[in-house]
Design goal:
two-stranded antiparallel sheet, 3 domains, elongated, Retrotrans_gag_dom, mainly alpha, 12 helices, Non-ribosomal Peptide Synthetase Peptidyl Carrier Protein, Chain A
């Protein structure tokens, strides 16, 4: 048996018509405020920061005194989105009669997102990592510094000196030279950071050129092509005879340096052959 979806639709319409505002807030007629851009809240950021931004925006509406409570509440609710809008819709009906009540409920709901106040202790706890660039550390230091109201210069300088890596050139600078103020110290730090980056870039260029030169040298020393013979030629004349002559050739040795007529080995072999022949003739009957 099919059931009608009409009752669910009626219930949904009824729920959208409910409001947590009292009649005093919901029924107040407001003056035209013009095009004001209000901050939106979705339920995942610092609620205190949102309230501050909202108060700045609504101050431009110039609502009449008798309109302010209603205007603040309604404009605030109109700029909730996502889970924050669902939270507001779930508030008890007729439970909000002024902006203070709405803000209290809002802060209670999203207190988990309230950021803790930044103090000088946060500066003191900030430390430069062993391989962290000085500029990266100084940028973090500046970000924390900007969040601290009425920062004491002396405490901040001590925190800076304490946080810089022990072997840093900038730490040496702070130890040797008296720095007038925190702004002066941060200005000096920027110069040291720039120097650190220049040195790193030059080192990188040097290593790149050195590696390129090494590769070029190694490619010139190529191995002989397969099948190609290498010959070691002894140009020394230490063991050569004084009669050595490249213009003469020996048929017996098959090389240059002396003639066949001058070759002692050829003459010796000729004599031996002649002796053997004479010996054979003497043995004949």
């Amino acid at each position: 048996m099919a059931t009608s979806a009409a009752p669910d639709i009626d219930l949904a319409i009824e729920e959208t018509q409910r409001t947590s505002f009292t009649e005093r807030i919901a029924g107040m007629k407001l003056s035209t405020v013009g095009k004001i851009k209000f901050p939106e809240y979705s339920g995942n950021s610092d609620p205190k920061a949102h309230i501050r931004a909202f108060r700045l925006a609504i101050s431009r509406t110039h609502l009449k005194d008798n309109e302010k409570e209603a205007g603040y509440c309604r404009f605030f609710a109109e700029n909730l989105a996502g889970s924050a809008l669902e939270w507001f819709a779930g508030l008890e009906e007729n439970s909000i009669d002024n902006f203070t009540q709405l803000v209290s409920a809002f802060l209670k709901q999203y207190s988990v997102f309230i950021e803790t106040r930044t103090t000088e202790a946060d500066l003191w706890n900030l430390k430069q990592a062993p391989f962290e660039h000085l500029r990266a550390y100084i940028n973090k230091f500046r970000e924390i510094k900007a969040k601290i109201a009425n920062l004491n210069d002396g405490v901040a300088l001590a925190a800076l000196k304490n946080g810089v890596w022990f072997s840093s050139k900038f730490k040496e600078e702070m130890s040797v030279r008296a720095l007038v103020s925190l702004d002066n110290a941060l200005h000096r730090a920027s110069h040291f950071a720039a120097y650190e980056e220049d040195v790193a870039n030059l080192k990188e260029q040097f290593l790149a050129s050195k590696n390129a030169a090494s590769k070029k040298t190694s490619t010139t020393k190529e191995a002989p092509t397969k099948g190609q013979h290498s010959y070691a030629i002894d140009n020394s004349t230490k063991n050569r005879s004084s009669t050595f002559d490249l213009n003469k050739h020996c048929d017996f040795h098959k090389r240059k340096g002396h003639s066949t007529e001058e070759c002692r080995a050829a003459l010796r072999e000729k004599r031996e052959k002649g002796g053997r022949r004479n010996s054979q003739e003497d043995e004949l009957p």
